[in-house]
Amino acid sequence: MASRDPESDPKVFLGRELKRARINAGFATQDALAAKLGFDRTVITKAETGDRAPTDEVLAAWCQACGLPADLFARFAALARRADGPVASWFEGWLEAEGKAHTLRLWAPLVLPGLFQPAGYARALFLAMGMDEEAAEEQVALRLSRQEILDRPDPPQVVAVIYEAVLHHLVGSPQVMHDALIHLAELSQRPNITIQVIPTDTGANAGLGGSFNLASGDGTPEVLAMVTIEDITTESRSLVRKAANIFVRVQADALPRAASRTVILEAAERWKAR
Fold first, then answer.
1. How are beta strands 193-198 and 211-216 bridged, if at all?
2. Largest Cα–Cα distance of the chain, in whole Å?
3. Which residue has the higher pLDDT, 253 or 231?
4. Which stretch of DSSP H or E encloses residue 47?
5. I need a labelling partner for 261 at 20 to 30 A (CA). Which of 6, 20, 81, 101 fits?
């Protein structure tokens, strides 16, 4: 286990200073600050104990509420949130939430959701992003390890809505696409996995602003991961609520499970024929 000494552990150092600032600003309890910032108390707890450094969003609100020098604490946070191995700092919170979730909701307008990507598809994506072979393999291994939650004895309920264009967007090669879509169709037959497709001929939909994932767990706040120009994980109640509302709207435009599986298999056959 990493040292919990604030002099050698940047996360613990940052947490100690944030706690001191909270108390000095008159927020006697973590609940009081959480209510002021609009986040769940666990966000404050994890930051102060050094379990997880706060996101930029949380840190900015904390600095404003407690009168802290934002530039200085941003530097502290940059050290505390430094990526560990292949896991980007912004993604650490999502990995924790995903692993504990009883329900996951995924919206995918551009590529297949990471939980559903076989190795060939994932590798092609990472190489296209400019990674070298070694870095891409690290990311593929991480992605496949995440998928183990689907095979555990108590897997989460997963509801994914996919824009039909994703099925026709070449990633890697036609064979990679065929294999990925067959894998997707097989997953859709599991009782705990619902995959629905929005036909492209429905026109614009509420989720075309970008992909996102929502994780719900027992006794923990709902967590949102957004993949945009700047990828973030957040527990902001307002953003989680906004994403949940968008998910309801995109799901309303989607085909039922059986019809969606037919669309997926038809797309797989077209890739096979190429």
1. unpaired
2. 68
3. 253
4. helix 41-49
5. 101
- The domains of the chain are located at 10-80, 89-272
| pLDDT tops 50 at residue 83 | no
CATH architecture of the region 10-80 = Orthogonal Bundle (1.10)
Report the pLDDT averaged over residues 136-164.
Answer: 93
From residue 141, give the alpha-carbon distance in Å to each of 59, 84, 147, 173, 212: 31, 15, 10, 20, 21
Residue 84: its pLDDT value, please? 47
Please report, for residues 95, 138, 165, 258, the alpha-carbon distance to residue 264 in angstroms, rounded to integers and kept in the order given: 28, 29, 11, 10
| Residue bearing tokens 């992909």 | 211
Q: Which residues pair with 107 in a beta bridge?
A: 161, 212
Helix (H/G/I), strand (E/B), else coil: 38: coil
Token output for 92: 């650490």
Mean pLDDT of the 109-136 span? 92
| Residue written as token pair 């002021």 | 36
Q: Which CATH architecture has domain 89-272?
A: 2-Layer Sandwich (3.30)
